[in-house]
Write a structure and sequence with these properties.
The structure holds two protein chains of two kinds. By secondary structure, chain A is of the alpha/beta class. Chain A is built from seven helices and 13 strands. Chain B folds into three domains: 114 residues, Butyryl-Coa Dehydrogenase, subunit A, domain 1 (Orthogonal Bundle); 115 residues, Butyryl-CoA Dehydrogenase, subunit A, domain 2 (Beta Barrel), CATH 2.40.110; 145 residues, Butyryl-CoA Dehydrogenase, subunit A, domain 3. Chain B has a four-stranded mixed beta sheet, covered by helices on one side. A four-stranded antiparallel beta sheet of chain B has the order 2-3-7-6, with helices on one face. In chain B, helix 1 runs parallel beside helix 3 and helix 4 packs antiparallel against helix 6. The chains are: A alpha/beta, B alpha+beta. Chain B: Belongs to the acyl-CoA dehydrogenase family.
Chain lengths: 263, 382
């Protein structure tokens, strides 16, 4: 079977996020890295391959992004993917989530994967939705926020993190599964794997190569209109209560909540 | 000129940085406090091919270059100098002489395990009476019935006394040449050889989680084939090994200074005094700006030394300059970092306290500043 892992290049976690006032979009300049959530998806794919309960023939990392996004693929293959696909085209720039999901689904159609894995969110846009959009286009079941993945009865049994606890879902393949960071501890790439990464096949595909209808992607093909995004206001300083006498502390907290009619 | 790191070097840097921040930083204080050798971290560094970075894959190394080695050492030292020196001494000093000068048999026996990090290598040069004047070797080795019989003592040796220490390459007087000068040769002594004893670890100012001990050799017999390279080449060999070692130690200085700056900047932005972050005060800003500038210069010098070695060009002068510059910088940067932390910098709650203790050895070990100045002045023709 074949697993495709969707990955994304995002601003490095150490870079402070801000809105670029000239475009109203996130400022993505500066140091970049592979989206940390995606490393969990790659690790999940590697564990399926190494676990041996399923015969995984190939893990393919797929990204859509500008030229620099090749670095995210470079890291993805150093972490174990066998090859990678870089969907890149000026026509794709400015795509919103729906357009990006459509474009990625078109790239995946050619690959016919049995499982598509991705991180549950990107560290920049944090939409949490790309997996569902891709699944819709592929007409495959979509599972999100999966934190446990087992091979059962030829399908995958997944535990989803929900607000009230966990859902256990048996899913048939093909399926699109986004994973949470609690699913595993991603490995670090070894130095030999880093140096060998560029020797693994990298395919560059344009929108036309992937059979993408250009009217459905890019800024013009996107329905999201970027308005005047602003950074959230700075949080007001909180109240710190020194816990010298716990009874008194509890009273102070209750009084504080009461004052605001929160209890 | 191209100042951009290659994609491989960038990814190596971010990988080692992640490893250091996520795996080493949480245990660094405890390792230092309990003076515990980081066996588990060394094992994991071996798995990541970081215990044999600059050696070719044929001998078990990662097949990377000196720049990659410098970057990895820098990122480790940014978080923990004990771990960095363990890797650094193992690579530049322990494994290097066997790789450069060892016989095919010695290389086949030792390099795969050393480069995998399963065993640690050590280099025994310094003696109680021979530090900077390393040619004044008192340890003697005499041939007797096809064996070298070694007698003498070594001082301040890193990595020789751990549970995974494999061997030490030592310098010894093996006779005198026709002009009556000492003939110095390098001899490989495996751990476990009768008569080779590792003394009690020193009580050091810093580098507390690294293994540093005196060694004694008493009627210690090893096979004649344990000679490393030609007899009498010991002096030339150890100068070469030290030249290479300086690049690693220079990278430690850059990394430690960067770690100190990062901690100082973080603290200065958190700490408030007189109603504002102390990072807004000019006096603090001047310190941060000066240290950041010095680090930028020192890093370029260090990478230049690595670049020259990778180009197979003469790098001795630049390596000595990098070592001199970075050792002093580490001392200064860690002192400024402690100063910016105020009283908190003087207690072990913040890493800069450990950084300050770890820094001083960088103006002493692998050639004191004064020796570097001698090397540099000679190269200038003075």
């Amino acid at each position: 079977m074949k697993i495709c892992v969707l990955v994304k290049e995002v601003p490095d976690a150490a870079v402070e996020k801000r809105i670029d006032p000239s475009t109203g979009r996130m400022d993505r300049s500066g140091e970049k890295n592979l989206n940390p959530y995606d490393t969990h998806a790659i690790e999940a794919a590697m564990q399926l391959k190494e676990g041996g309960a399923l015969q995984v023939d190939e893990i393919v990392a797929v990204t859509m992004g500008p030229e620099s996004a090749v670095r995210a693929l470079h890291k993805a293959v150093s972490l174990g993917a066998d090859r990678s696909i870089h969907l890149t085209d000026a026509a794709l720039a400015g795509s919103d989530v729906a357009a990006t999901g459509y474009a990625l689904a078109k790239a995946l159609e050619k690959e016919q994967p049995d499982v598509v894995l991705l991180g549950q969110q990107s560290d920049d846009g944090e939409c949490y939705t790309i997996g569902a959009v891709v699944a819709e286009h592929l007409k495959a079941p979509s599972l999100t926020q999966v934190i446990k993945l087992d091979v059962v009865d030829g399908g995958l049994r997944c535990e989803r993190q929900a607000e009230y606890g966990y859902d256990t879902v048996q899913v048939s393949l093909p399926a699109v599964i986004s994973v949470g960071d609690a699913i595993n501890e991603p490995r670090y790439p070894s130095l030999k794997a880093i140096m060998g990464a560029k020797k693994k096949p990298l395919e560059t595909a344009s929108a036309a190569d992937a059979g993408i209808d250009a009217s459905l992607v890019g800024g013009d093909g996107s329905r999201v209109q970027c308005g005047e995004f602003k950074a959230p206001p700075a949080k007001a300083a909180g109240t710190i209560i020194e816990d010298e006498d716990t009874d008194a502390t509890v009273e102070q907290i209750v009084a504080w909540l009461d004052e605001r009619k929160l209890i | 000129m191209d100042f951009d790191l290659s994609d491989d070097h960038r990814l190596l840097r971010s990988t080692v940085r992640d490893f250091a921040e996520q795996e080493i930083a949480p245990v660094a204080e405890e390792l230092d406090r309990t003076k515990a050798f980081p066996y588990e971290l060394v094992r994991r560094l071996g798995e990541l091919n970081l215990m044999g970075i600059p050696f070719p894959e044929e001998v078990g190394g990662a097949g990377a270059d000196t720049l990659a080695y410098a970057i990895a050492v820098e990122e480790l030292a940014r978080i923990d100098s004990s771990v960095a020196i363990t890797l650094c001494a193992h690579t530049s000093l322990g494994t290097q002489p066997i790789y450069l000068f060892g016989s095919p048999e010695q290389r086949a026996e030792w390099l795969p395990k050393l480069t995998a990090g399963e065993l640690l290598g050590a280099f025994g040069l310094t003696e109680p009476e021979a530090g900077s004047d390393a040619g004044n070797v008192q340890t003697r080795a005499t041939l007797d019935g096809g064996e070298w019989v070694v007698d003498g003592a070594k001082q301040f040796i890193t990595n020789a006394g751990t549970e995974i220490s494999g061997c030490v390459v030592i310098t010894a007087q093996t006779g005198t040449d026709e002009r009556g000068r000492k003939e110095i040769s390098n001899i490989l002594v495996p751990n476990g050889t009768p008569g080779y004893e590792q003394g009690t670890p020193y009580r050091k100012m810093g580098w507390n989680a690294s293994d540093t001990r005196p060694l004694t050799f008493t009627d210690c017999r090893v096979p004649e084939e344990n000679l490393v390279g030609p007899r009498g080449d010991g002096f030339k060999q150890f100068l070469r090994v030290l030249d290479i070692g300086r690049i690693g130690v220079a990278a430690m200085g850059v990394g430690l200074a960067q770690g100190a700056l990062d901690e100082a900047l973080k603290y200065a932005k958190e700490r408030k005094a007189f109603g504002q972050q102390i990072s807004k005060f000019q006096a603090i800003q001047a310190k941060l700006a000066d240290v950041a500038t010095e680090i930028a210069a020192a890093r370029l010098l260090t990478y230049h030394a690595a670049f020259l070695k990778d180009q197979r060009r003469d790098f001795s002068l630049v390596a000595a300059q990098a070592k001199l510059k970075t050792g002093r910088l580490a001392v200064r940067a860690t002192e400024e970092a402690v100063q910016i932390h105020g009283g908190y910098g003087y207690i072990e709650e913040y890493p800069v306290c450990r950084f300050y203790r770890d820094a001083k050895i960088l103006t002493i070990g692998e050639g004191t500043d004064e020796v570097q100045q001698m090397v540099i002045a000679r190269a200038l023709g003075a």
